[in-house]
Design a protein that fits this description.
7-stranded mixed β-sheet; Rossmann fold; alpha/beta; 6-stranded mixed β-sheet; 45% helix; Four Helix Bundle (Hemerythrin (Met), subunit A); 14 helices; 17% strand; 449 residues
């Protein structure tokens, strides 16, 4: 990290302003070589300076240059941001000029990687940066910002603090048994601490289920046989005519996707081809795709036609989805009913063309996932699969330690599992992260961040 990096930090589309960002020991001097205005190496930190960028005698652009000196910067290194006009060509010329004068093109996420490696943020905060960028709702942005300010880190550090106190006292007891005034750690002392830690981890894991829904949305497959109104239901939820709707069975032969925000939660909707027995080769491909989506979905909206009796295909879908998260929709409530409603334990009778019915369905989905009052949700949640996996590792080690303690094992044996739990929790915030893991995580970031 001794070199100076550069990248375009704004969109590569044409816009009013582009920002070319540099970070590193030579950032200020590299920009100063091409800047006509004040001497950037002598201006105060955290100032914006007007001038022009030149390539030799050629004027490139009129710019505003922000100077931020270490350590009070995003990366804890010297950082310079060149605010230029937002044309693609002019931005590229300035970028190339910075590289010619000694900067290196930044890798994806390298600015945030440097912030992590230089100790400005921990790994949960680094991951939260991308969560802020990717946020699709007010609620998902709230979760990301809470993690970004360090609340998740504080929670993990509090858990580790309990464990490290146990570890330290056990090791003192083992290494210095002659210290009679030192508290002797026994199973009776350890078990309450371990139970308390276990409860905290389980609570975090429980909350993480809701966190994943808020962050990633609910993958929702609309399933049913042909012509039951699946596409109309998709259009109703999206409030637009995304899918083609006709009276001809089998109109939808491929999946149609869309996203809808239902009061802070995103439904990742997939309208599928009708599932039924068919000899049509193209329809068979569509049916296979529908079954694949059914198997992957977090939520299945199973649609039936109120004006038709249940068919063998309908019965098969009911049986196939009986152990899944599903909502049974009996559509076309405005038509004469011929369906046997006694076949359903729970169902929603509605018309996909009725706005009030669509709103009622959205309310049912929120109730199903206990998401009716997101404003009161404690936002200190574990945010992704990596963090969640490490929590499960820590919980397993705590359970192993409790099992050993309850069976009367000596404390130095119990200490092995406590130390493993402490290490797993440290992995969440990046205390023990390998170079490979760090590089992989930041490679998912955009350039310039």
């Amino acid at each position: 990290m001794n070199d100076t990096i550069v990248a375009v930090s704004t969109s590569h589309l044409i816009g009013a302003i582009s920002i070319v960002r540099l970070s590193g020991d030579e950032a200020i001097s590299i920009v100063n070589k091409t800047f006509k205005g004040k001497n950037l190496e002598k201006v105060p930190t955290h100032t914006i300076n007007y001038g022009h960028i030149y390539d030799g005698a050629d004027l490139i652009d009129e710019v505003m240059v922000t100077i931020m000196r270490a350590p009070k910067t995003y990366t804890k290194e010297d950082v310079v941001e060149i605010n230029c006009h937002g044309g693609q060509y002019v931005t590229q010329r300035i970028l190339e000029l910075m590289i010619k004068n000694g900067a290196r093109m930044a890798e994806a996420g390298e600015f945030t990687k440097r912030a992590f490696l230089n100790g400005r943020i921990d790994l949960t905060q680094a991951e939260a940066v991308m969560d802020v960028i990717d946020a699709k709702t007010k609620e998902s942005l709230k979760l990301a910002n809470v993690a970004l300010r360090g609340d998740v880190k504080k929670k993990i550090e509090a858990l580790r603090s309990k464990l490290v106190t146990c570890i330290a006292k056990i090791e003192v007891n083992i290494d210095y048994p002659e210290y009679e005034d030192e508290e002797q750690i026994t199973q009776e002392i350890l078990i309450p601490i371990l139970n308390d830690t276990k409860k905290d981890i389980e609570e975090l894991l429980e909350k993480s289920e809701i966190s994943e829904i808020i962050k990633d949305g609910i993958n929702t497959a609309i399933i049913g046989k042909p012509n039951v109104g699946k596409s109309s239901l998709l259009n109703g939820l999206l409030r637009e005519r995304k899918a083609i709707v006709t009276d001809i069975a089998g109109t939808t032969r491929d999946i149609v996707e869309g996203k809808v925000n239902i009061g802070g939660i995103v439904l990742n909707l997939i309208d599928t081809a009708g599932i039924h027995a068919t000899s049509d080769v193209i329809e068979q491909i569509g049916v296979k795709k529908s079954i694949d989506e059914l198997n992957k979905a977090d939520l299945i909206i199973l649609v039936f036609d109120n004006s038709q009796e249940l068919s063998n295909d309908d019965e098969a879908l009911l049986d196939q989805t009986k152990d899944r998260n599903r909502i049974v929709i009996v559509n076309k409530s405005d038509l004469e009913s011929k369906i046997d409603l006694s076949k359903f334990d729970d169902y929603v009778l509605m018309s996909a063309l009725d706005e009030e019915d669509i709103c009622s369905l959205e309310k049912k989905i929120r109730e199903m996932y206990s998401l009716n009052d997101l404003n009161n949700i404690d936002a200190t949640y574990i945010g992704n699969a990596r963090q969640k996996g490490k929590l499960f590792e820590a919980l397993k080690s705590i359970n192993d330690a409790l099992e050993s303690a309850n069976s009367g094992q000596v404390v130095d044996i119990i200490n092995v599992d406590i130390t493993e739990a402490y290490t797993a929790l440290g992995d969440i915030i990046g205390e023990n992260s390998s170079d490979t893991l760090v590089s992989e995580l930041f490679s998912k970031f955009c350039l310039g961040k």
